[in-house]
Amino acid sequence: MHISSKSPWLLKTNSPTIVAVAELFRIDKPAGTYLLLTPCIWSLTMSSIMLLSSYHGLTPPLIENVTQFALQTTLFIVGAYTMRSAGCVINDMHDRELDFKVWRSLQRPIACGRISYSEAWAALIVLSVIGVAILYYGLPWQCWWLGLASLPLIFVYPLFKRFTYYPQIVLSSCFNWGSLLGFAAIFDLPWRPMAGLYLTTFLWCMIYDTIYAHQDKKFDIKANIKSTALKWGSKSKPILYILALVQCLALFDSCYDAGLIGQTKMFSTAGMLTFDYLLFRMIYKVNLDNPANCWHYFRRNVKYGQAFTVGLLLEYFYQLFKASTKEEEDDNSNRRLE
C-alpha cells in the first residue's frame, strides 16, 4: 500500500537514497508546498496591483513593477519548496518515534531507518542555508527580520501536538508567513491589507489542517497525539463554518483596503467570491469520519486557492494593460504639445 501511494516518476527511480530523500522532502506530495506558496503569490500579486493603482501615491515605472514581480515570484517559489522541505525534515526528526504509531506515516524515511538522524540534520542544515540565503540576498531588507521571526515557530511546531490540542494554531501561524513577506518584498508594509490577508490565510490553514487531522484521529488517540480534530470532535463542522465566515470577512477587508473590490476590479472580486464559495462548499460536503474523503478535500484546497490566484493574476495583467495604455496615451499627448 505504501508503494502504490507513491508518484509514478518516483517508482521509476532505481536509487533507494533518492527515493528516501524525495519522501523526506515530500517532493512526491507537493500539495503542502502549493498551500505554502499560495499566500506568497496572493500577497505578491495584491501588492503589485496596489502599486499599479497608485496606492498611497506610489507609482513606480511599469517595467520596474513587472521585473520586481517576476523576480520575487521566482524567489518565493524556490523558497516555498526549500522551507516546506525543511519543515518536513524537522517534523520527521521530532516525530520519528510517533510515526510508527500512525498507519499513514509509519513508512517515513527516518522512522523506518532509511535515513539516519545525522543525515537528516545534514539535509536540514543545507535547506536552512538555502532559505536564509534567499532571504538575505534576494529579498528587500524589511523581509530579513520578518522572515527570521518565523523560524522559531517552524522548529517547535511538531512538539505542540504532544501537550496541546491546538498544534494547528502554531502551524497556521508560521505556514502562512508568506502573506506578510510577499507584501514586504514589493511594498513598504501596508499594514491593513497585510493583517487582513494574514488572518485570512491563518484561518484557512486552521480549516484545512483540521480536516487533514480528522483522517488520523483513530490512530492519534492511541498514540496520544493531540489535534483540533480530537478536541472539537462532532462540533468540528460548526466551528469550521465560524472560522470560514471570519476568514471571508478578513479577506474582504484586506481586498477592500487594497482597492481590489468593485466594478473596476472584476477579476479579483470574482476570484475572491469563488474562493469563499468553494470553502463553504468543502465544509458542507466533507465527511470527517472518512479518512479518504478528508484527504481528498484537503488536497482540493490547492485548487480552491488557485481560484483566487487566477483572479488576482488576471487582475494584475489587466491593470498592467490599462496602465501601459494610459502611459502610451500620455506620451502621445506630450509629443503633440511639444
UniProtKB/TrEMBL annotation:
Entry EC no(s): 2.5.1.39
GO terms classed as biological process: isoprenoid biosynthetic process; ubiquinone biosynthetic process
Classification via CDD domains: PT_UbiA_COQ2
GO molecular function: 4-hydroxybenzoate polyprenyltransferase activity
Subcellular location: Membrane; Mitochondrion inner membrane
Transmembrane segments: 34-55, 75-94, 115-138, 144-160, 169-187, 193-212
Keywords: Isoprene biosynthesis, Membrane, Mitochondrion, Mitochondrion inner membrane, Transferase, Transmembrane, Transmembrane helix, Ubiquinone biosynthesis
Needed cofactors: Mg(2+)
Enzyme class: transferase
Gene Ontology CC: one annotated term: mitochondrial inner membrane
Catalytic activity field: an all-trans-polyprenyl diphosphate + 4-hydroxybenzoate = a 4-hydroxy-3-(all-trans-polyprenyl)benzoate + diphosphate
PROSITE patterns with a match to the protein in the record: UBIA (PS00943)
Domain of life: Eukaryota
Predominant location category: membrane
Gene3D superfamilies associated with the record: UbiA prenyltransferase
Pathway: Cofactor biosynthesis; ubiquinone biosynthesis; Secondary metabolite biosynthesis
Membrane topology: Multi-pass membrane protein
Function: Catalyzes the prenylation of para-hydroxybenzoate (PHB) with an all-trans polyprenyl group. Mediates the second step in the final reaction sequence of coenzyme Q (CoQ) biosynthesis, which is the condensation of the polyisoprenoid side chain with PHB, generating the first membrane-bound Q intermediate.
NCBIfam families per UniProt: ubiA_proteo
Similarity remark: Belongs to the UbiA prenyltransferase family.
Stated name of the protein: 4-hydroxybenzoate polyprenyltransferase, mitochondrial
Organism this protein belongs to: Hanseniaspora valbyensis NRRL Y-1626
